[in-house]
Amino acid sequence: MRNTSKFTRTLIALAMLSIPLCTPLQATIIQTYNDRTTWQAATSGQSDIDFSDLTLGNGGTYTLYTTSAGLTWGGVNFTGVTGSGGYYMVASNPGGSDSFGTGNLLRGPAYWQGGYIELLFGANVTSIALDLMTMTPKGASISLVVDGVSVGGAIATSTGSPTFWGATADSPITSLRVYLSMSGSGSDTQAMIDNIAFGQAGPPPGSETPEAATLFYVGGGVYLIAWKKKRSLRLART
Q1: Can you give the CATH number for the domain in which 132 is found?
Q2: Does a structural domain hold residue 9?
């Protein structure tokens, strides 16, 4: 009886230790990434958006979006909001010195207009990513706001290639705003975005680590087998 009680107490203690590990976090804690491969390893159910299939107006050169409807593409709504409360966003394929060689992309209000590009996501999105660029000139800094909360400081974009940014959160992300920062911006500078991706935070299927509850049951089973074997040997000697 004494040994049985000791075994029961051990199982209860193991269960209590597993409770904090099994309880999901309530706060939205965002982790950021500057490498797409690392972000992909932390994301499941990934969907990708580029604008290569978007038909441009004005002889195939650009399409201007000046209403609150913006552009809905690949399950995400995009709008360009100016500092005066108006709307301005352009889909184009920048050429010349403003080109990054990525094809069609979206660019938002000029620095003198104020404002931002806003992305609105659907339900259950807890992981997001995109490429960031600026034009006139290249290499200006960008600031990001997720669901009304600024994420980190200003991001210095590259002049030679798109700058990747990604984030994962433990509760759904509904919006991302892309602002031009003062650093490196001229009056005509515009932020540009491309290669948007989103999904759920957590590794893709097949790469998960065991949950705490699973570890508890496995550990409890191993302990039970060892306890029964030890008890059987003791009875055999009596």
Answers
A1: 2.60.120
A2: yes
On whether both 193 and 233 belong to a single domain, the answer is: no
pLDDT in tens, 29-40: 689 999 999 999
Beta bridge partner(s), residue 49: 196
Number of H helices, E strands in the chain: 3, 15
| pTM for this predicted structure | 0.77
User: Is 183 found in the same domain as 71?
Assistant: yes
58: left (phi over 0), alpha (psi -120 to 50) or beta: left
Residues 220 and 119 in one domain: no
Residue linked to tokens 């100016």: 82
d(CA 112, CA 98): 18
Out of 17-26, 37-46, 83-92, 103-112, pick the least confident: 17-26
Residue 236's H or E segment, with its range, is: helix 212-237
